[in-house]
Design goal:
Blueprint: H1 3-27, E1 37-40, E2 46-49, E3 56-59, E4 66-69, E5 76-78, E6 85-88, E7 92-96, E8 102-105, E9 110-112, E10 118-120, E11 125-129, E12 146-147, E13 155-156, E14 163-171, E15 182-189, E16 195-206, E17 209-217, E18 229-241, E19 247-249, E20 256-260, E21 270-275, E22 278-279, E23 282-283, E24 285-288, E25 293-299, E26 305-312, E27 317-322, E28 327-333, E29 335-337, E30 345-348, E31 351-353, E32 362-364, E33 373-376, E34 378-380, H2 386-419
Parallel strand pairs: 14-21, 14-24
Antiparallel strand pairs: 1-4, 2-3, 5-34, 6-33, 7-8, 7-11, 7-29, 8-31, 9-10, 11-12, 11-28, 13-26, 14-25, 15-16, 16-17, 17-18, 18-19, 20-21, 22-23, 26-27, 27-28, 29-32, 30-31
Helix pairs in contact: 1-2
Length: about 425
C-alpha cells in the first residue's frame, strides 16, 4: 500500500512535466519555424509478489517522460519582408552566433544590419556564399560557407556597350532616291555610363540595295561640331536583299564593327562596337512592301545605377535590384540536411544545436541532396495545433486529479491502519 504514495507522486511529477510541455507549445503558437514537442510516458520496473513467478506484478509508477520534437512541415505563410524565407521540405538554415557557434533553424524571418550582414531576428549570422563568378554572374557554391553580406546603398558601376542589334523593315516600294530615307536610333553607353544616341540612316540606291551609315551627335566627340551629326568611321556600307526580301549581304557571321573615339566626356574609346544584323542565320533587317519602321532594338550596356532594394528569392538567392531595372544575384543562402533531426537539442531563439547522437549535417544548395526548397517572401508557421494541445491539456489535468486522489486515498488507508493499534 505504501508504494502507492511514490507511484502516485511519480505520476504527478510526470503529468506536471507534460503540462509544462503543452504550455511551452501553446506559448510558441505564433513562433515562426517552431516545431511542437510531444510527451512520451514510460512505466518503471515492476515488482513481483508471491512466489516470484510473475503471477502478481505491481509497478512503481511512471518515469520522467521523454519529449520528442516533431519536425513536420509547417504552413508556408506569405510575408511582407523582402529577406524572409521559408523551407518547403526537409533541411535547416545554418546560422552562427557572436561566439562562432553553429546552429540550425527553420525560422527564416531575416534582416540586414547597417553593415549589410544578413541576420536572424535574434542577431545570428545567416551562412551561405557570396563569391560571384564575373563571367557567368552566378554564385560559386563550391567553397566554404560564411557570412552573407548584402549590398547596402551601393552604386552599380556602368557597363559600356560592346554590341547592339536592331530589328526593322525597309520599304521595298520606296524609290531609289532621297525620298526613301529612313532613320532609327539606338542608345549606347561609354565606360563612364554616359549615353550616346547612335543614329542608323538608310537610303535606297537601287532595287534590293540600301546604303546605311551610323552617326553620333557632334557634341559627343572632341572632333565634332555641336548640332551636327558626325559620321563614324567604318560604320557605313550597303545592305543587299534577295527577291524574297531577306538580307543576303553582308552574310551571316560577318557583323559590322567600328570604333567611336575621342569622346568629349573623357570616357575610354568605344573599341570594337559590334552591330549584328543577324539572329543566328536569320536577318534582323528585311525589305518587304510595308512602311519602313523598326520593331525592336537591343544593346548590352547600362548607365550607373542606384541600389533600390535587396530581396531573397526562391531557391535562396540574394537578389539586388537597381534603378535601371537590372537584377543581380549577390549571394546564396546555404541549407543543411540532417538525417535524424529529432536528436537536435533546442537552444532557444528558434535554433537547434547538434547532440552526440546527431548525424553530421550535409551543407548544400536548396533543392539538392534531399534538401527542401527555399521559398522567398514567406515564413514557415509554427506546427502547434491548438485544438490538439487543448485536448492534451484536459487529459493531463484529469490524470493529475486522478493521481492526487490516489495519494489522498492511500493517506486515508494508512491512517485507518494506524488507528487499528490504538
Amino acid at each position: 500500500m505504501f508504494t502507492s504514495f511514490s507511484t502516485a507522486l511519480s505520476a504527478l511529477s510526470a503529468t506536471s512535466t507534460a503540462i509544462d510541455v503543452v504550455g511551452n507549445n501553446l506559448a510558441n503558437l505564433n513562433t515562426p519555424g517552431f516545431k511542437t514537442s510531444q510527451v512520451c510516458f514510460r512505466d518503471l520496473v515492476t515488482q513481483s509478489l508471491g512466489a516470484g513467478l510473475g503471477d502478481t506484478q505491481v509497478g512503481f509508477g511512471t518515469g520522467q517522460p521523454l519529449t520528442v520534437r516533431e519536425f513536420s512541415q509547417g504552413a508556408i505563410q506569405t510575408s511582407a519582408g523582402l529577406l524572409d524565407a521559408a523551407i518547403q521540405g526537409d533541411g535547416f538554415f545554418v546560422v552562427k552566433d557572436n561566439q562562432g557557434g553553429t546552429f540550425y533553424t527553420r525560422a527564416g524571418n531575416f534582416q540586414a544590419d547597417s553593415s549589410g550582414n544578413l541576420l536572424t531576428d535574434t542577431g545570428d549570422s545567416v551562412q551561405g556564399w557570396t563569391t560571384v563568378n564575373p563571367a557567368t554572374g552566378t554564385v560559386d557554391t563550391n567553397g566554404p560557407i560564411g557570412k552573407i553580406i548584402v549590398p547596402v546603398g551601393t552604386l552599380k558601376p556602368p557597363t559600356p556597350t560592346t554590341g547592339f542589334t536592331t530589328d526593322l523593315n525597309l520599304n521595298s516600294s520606296s524609290a531609289a532616291d532621297a525620298t526613301s530615307d529612313f532613320t532609327t536610333t539606338v542608345t549606347a553607353y561609354d565606360s563612364l555610363g554616359t549615353s550616346h544616341v547612335l543614329t542608323l540612316s538608310f537610303e535606297k540606291t537601287a532595287p534590293n540595295t540600301w546604303n546605311y551609315k551610323v552617326t553620333i551627335p557632334g557634341e559627343d566627340l572632341s572632333t565634332g561640331t555641336a548640332g551636327t551629326p558626325s559620321d563614324i568611321e567604318g560604320a557605313s556600307g550597303t545592305f543587299t536583299f534577295g527577291a524574297d526580301g531577306k538580307l543576303t549581304d553582308p552574310a551571316p557571321g560577318a557583323p559590322i564593327k567600328f570604333d567611336v573615339t575621342g569622346l568629349t566626356d573623357g570616357a575610354a574609346d568605344m573599341q570594337g562596337l559590334t552591330w549584328d544584323p543577324y539572329s543566328g542565320k536569320t536577318g534582323r533587317i528585311t525589305q518587304f512592301g510595308q512602311t519602313s519602321s523598326p520593331s525592336a532594338s537591343w544593346q548590352n550596356g547600362s548607365a550607373a545605377a542606384q541600389l533600390v532594394h535587396v530581396g531573397l528569392g526562391d531557391g535562396g538567392k540574394i537578389l539586388a535590384q537597381y534603378s535601371n531595372g537590372d537584377q543581380v544575384v549577390v549571394g546564396q543562402v546555404a541549407m543543411a540536411s540532417i538525417r535524424n533531426p529529432d536528436t537536435l537539442i533546442a537552444s532557444g531563439n528558434n535554433a537547434f544545436q547538434l547532440s552526440a547522437r546527431t548525424a553530421n549535417p550535409s551543407i548544400g544548395v536548396s533543392g539538392t541532396g534531399g534538401r527542401g526548397n527555399i521559398v522567398g517572401g514567406a515564413v514557415e508557421a509554427s506546427t502547434v495545433d491548438i485544438a490538439q494541445e487543448f485536448t492534451h491539456l484536459i487529459v493531463y489535468q484529469r490524470g493529475y486529479e486522478a493521481n492526487s486522489k490516489v495519494v489522498t486515498t492511500a493517506d486515508q488507508l494508512s491512517q485507518d491502519t494506524i488507528n487499528l493499534i490504538r
